[in-house]
């Protein structure tokens, strides 16, 4: 079973994403802020980390920076969710180390399609 960490501070959106992905059999750990996300990352390994760009405690960008500096997480796939969808923001996100980007608002089904595509690349 593939394991995903979702770090999203908007509770309703987090619940929607968790429900969508759990219905497809993914195991999800959910963090309501960047601090919780760091705690999960210190204690677990993930196939995919989905990060919100703007969160309390640590932003998605700060989490990517911390992840990419650790050998055990340097190859973990990262999907950044953000309303900041301008080309220069996306360039910053990819330069920081994110592997994928999805602009908010988005369809939960589109997110599911992208997650399945990401997690099936390894096969």
Automatic annotation (TrEMBL):
PROSITE patterns: RESPONSE_REGULATORY. It holds the Pfam family Response_reg. InterPro entries: Bact_response_regulator, CheY-like_superfamily, Sig_transdc_resp-reg_receiver. It comes from the Bacteria. Residues 3-119 form the Response regulatory domain. One of its GO terms (biological process) is phosphorelay signal transduction system. Transmembrane segments: none annotated. The keyword Phosphoprotein applies. Keywords: Phosphoprotein, Two-component regulatory system. The modification 4-aspartylphosphate is found at residue 52. PANTHER family: PROTEIN PILG, STRESS RESPONSE REGULATOR PROTEIN 1. This is Response regulator. It comes from Oceanobacillus arenosus. The lineage of its organism: Bacteria, Bacillati, Bacillota, Bacilli, Bacillales.
């Amino acid at each position: 079973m593939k394991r995903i960490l979702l770090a999203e501070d908007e509770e309703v959106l987090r619940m929607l994403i968790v429900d969508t992905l759990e219905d497809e059999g993914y195991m999800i750990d959910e963090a309501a802020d960047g601090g919780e996300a760091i705690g999960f990352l210190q204690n677990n390994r993930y196939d995919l980390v989905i990060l919100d760009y703007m969160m309390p405690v640590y932003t998605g960008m700060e989490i990517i920076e911390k992840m990419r500096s650790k050998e055990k997480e340097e190859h973990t796939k990262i999907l950044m969710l953000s309303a900041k969808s301008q080309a220069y923001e996306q360039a910053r996100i990819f330069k920081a180390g994110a592997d994928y980007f999805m602009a908010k608002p988005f369809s939960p089904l589109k997110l599911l399609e992208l997650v399945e595509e990401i997690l099936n690349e390894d096969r």
